[in-house]
Amino acid sequence: MKVVWRLDKATVREVYDALRERRTVAYTTVMTMMKILEEKGFLKKTQVERAYLYRPSRPRQQVLGAMVRDFVDRVFDGAAEGLLLHLAKDGRLSKDERQRIKRLIENIDE
What we know:
110 residues, mainly alpha, 2 strands
């Protein structure tokens, strides 16, 4: 999704080429993932000559929210607490990020 967002629209080949700059990945894996993202409604495709051109179907924040909800449902049985605890204990959150999250939680009911 990040590659498609960055390019605005892309073929499987363009996404594959972009990903190959950073790591080894099979073309068929990229094709399968883009098909899954389309089936989930995150991408739309149109045929241009012999290739499909994919573009985001919804705004980035809306897609990210849906992906996070799906992840929490699948990995944490729908309970966000497990994800938040993992992130807090993992040590990847900076002090500023932890304080921002704390303020967000405190202001939810306002």
